[in-house]
TrEMBL record:
Domain named PA: residues: 103-184
Record-stated family: Belongs to the peptidase S8 family.
One Pfam match: PA
Naturally occurring in which organism (per UniProt): Musa troglodytarum
GO biological process: proteolysis
Protein name as catalogued: Subtilisin-like protease
Gene Ontology MF term list: serine-type endopeptidase activity
Signal peptide residue numbers: none
InterPro entries referenced in this protein's UniProt entry, alphabetically: PA_domain, Peptidase_S8/S53_dom, Peptidase_S8/S53_dom_sf, SBT, Subtilisin-like_FN3
Keywords: Hydrolase, Protease, Signal
Domain spans labelled Subtilisin-like protease fibronectin type-III: 370-465
SUPFAM superfamilies (UniProt xref): Subtilisin-like
Length: 469
């Protein structure tokens, strides 16, 4: 990372990460801090350990932490059952010559062997799958193929819900959701002669709901810094078609795929606004993100339920709007140092991150909630029924602009913005405001939003409230 910065790059895109670590022990966080000090934007993968809570990588607030969501495209293989029911699944393996005939269908877990149920290599020894459809997804297909199977139905576990992927399978296959898999297994168990066929339909555009958060995308809340809402943003990361070493192309899914989408968008903004800091670019991306899908409904998760802030962050990136956000929440390296000292890091630890001597006793430290971040996270409950958050916004739109506050208070919370109107006289003018939260009920967690609305812009920040007992 240091070498890339020394070479003069504008954006660092890191499709890698590990478990949550203190920032001074996280080499990516340390490298990223050095990058943003030099004006280099850093975009990193949120991780692929979802939908389990608090599984994020790359949680530092000076990094853009990118979740993964779907596109409105399926590469479809429909499963036709002998009883007339059909289920849409996905695979990039689309043979021209595979006949749409009904073949005998078996459930791989019927012999009670857990390894066979997962299509593990060698687990089909002594199990008759010849002519039948059924530890990585592609390895499952290889195991079925080596056992004499001519096709495979790959069904989700309950936690993965409706999230499916178009993989380059080694045999005719269809990846279906959990509900479809359950119905297919019920049919196998209720029929003396279960059969199925595949219908290969190729690329289907305009599918819905889209975008949707995929099951594997890692979730917050952040362990390293619970008071900063993470992930920051989501982008296309499912069944992404791209060039691949050693072959013409491949189709891959992961936050490793969504991250370069965001890196490219950051580069576009940087080229249009070369004087903007990495924090300003991040703010522009986050405050213009969409929280509704292509049909205007709330973006959903793998269970087709509205995705929460710990899955979606500020929302799905909107590249066109991001280049003209109206207002930005800006930050400098010194702001992050004040935040780290306030987070309880010792001077020695902060010095490791900053790579210069820092004395926290001489720093005006700030609590997490008051870092000038484009999202807001507050904890209420116990003895804390009231909280006030401070923010600063910089006008990067028209010289004479007026913005009005609109706050969607999280459930169980009263929220008010002071002042409720911001009037800017010139470009790059900064204004300070406060958001006051008061607990009036609540329990568990809740989410809302703050919007600054002008004639030409809507600057949206998600609000996350955690209630402690």
């Amino acid at each position: 990372m240091d070498a890339a910065v020394a070479d003069g790059v504008d954006v660092l895109s890191l499709s890698l990460g590990g478990p949550s670590l203190p920032f001074d022990e996280d080499t990516i966080a340390v490298g990223a801090f050095g990058a943003i000090e030099k004006g280099v934007f850093v975009s990193c993968a949120a991780g692929n350990s979802g939908p389990v809570p608090s599984t994020l990588s790359n949680e530092a607030p000076w990094i853009l932490t990118v979740a993964a969501s779907t596109m409105d495209r399926n590469i479809r293989v429909t499963v036709m059952l002998g009883n007339g029911l059909s289920f849409d699944g996905e695979s990039i393996f689309q043979p021209n010559s595979f006949p749409p005939a009904l073949y005998p269908l078996v459930y791989a877990g019927a012999n009670g062997n857990p390894a066979t149920a997962l299509c593990a290599n060698g687990s089909f020894d002594g199990f008759d799958v010849k002519g039948n459809g059924g530890i990585a997804r592609l390895e499952k297909g290889a195991a079925v193929l080596s056992a004499g199977g001519i096709g495979m139905i790959l069904a989700n576990q309950a936690t993965d819900g409706y999230s499916t992927l178009a993989d380059a399978h080694v045999l005719p296959a269809s990846h279906v959701g959990f509900a479809a898999g359950d119905q297919i297994k019920a049919y196998i168990n209720s029929s003396s002669n279960p059969t199925s066929a595949f219908l290969f339909k190729g690329t289907i555009l305009g599918t819905s709901p889209a975008p949707a958060i995929t099951s594997f995308s890692s979730r917050g809340p952040s362990l390293a810094s619970p008071g900063i809402l993470k992930p920051d943003i989501t982008g296309p990361g499912v069944s992404v078609l791209a060039a691949w070493p050693g072959t013409t192309f491949n189709i891959i899914s992961g936050t490793s795929m969504s991250t370069p989408h965001l890196s490219g968008i950051a580069a576009l903004i940087k080229s249009a606004r070369p004087d903007w800091s990495p924090a300003a670019i991040k703010s522009a991306i986050m405050t213009t993100a969409s929280v509704v899908d292509h049909s205007g409904k709330p973006i959903v998760n793998e269970q087709l339920l509205p995705a929460d802030l710990f899955a979606i962050g500020a929302g799905h990136v909107n590249p066109v709007k991001a280049s003209n956000p109206g207002l930005v929440y800006d930050l400098s390296a010194d702001d992050y140092i004040a935040y780290l000292c306030g987070l309880g890091y010792a001077s020695k630890q902060v010095s490791v991150i900053a790579r210069r001597t820092i004395d926290c006793s001489a720093v005006s430290s700030i609590p997490e909630k008051d870092l000038n971040y484009p999202s807001i996270s507050v904890t209420l409950g116990g003895n804390t029924t009231y909280a006030m958050v401070e923010r600063r916004v910089k006008n990067v739109g028209n010289a004479g602009s007026t913005y009005w506050a609109e706050v969607g208070a999280p459930y169980g919370t009263y929220a008010r913005v002071h002042p409720p109107v911001l009037r800017f006289n010139y470009v790059n003018q900064e204004k300070r405001f406060f958001v006051v939260f008061k607990m009036v009920g609540g329990g568990g967690g809740s989410q809302g939003y703050l919007k600054w609305v002008s004639v030409n812009h809507e600057v949206r920040s998600p609000i996350s409230i955690t209630y402690k007992h």
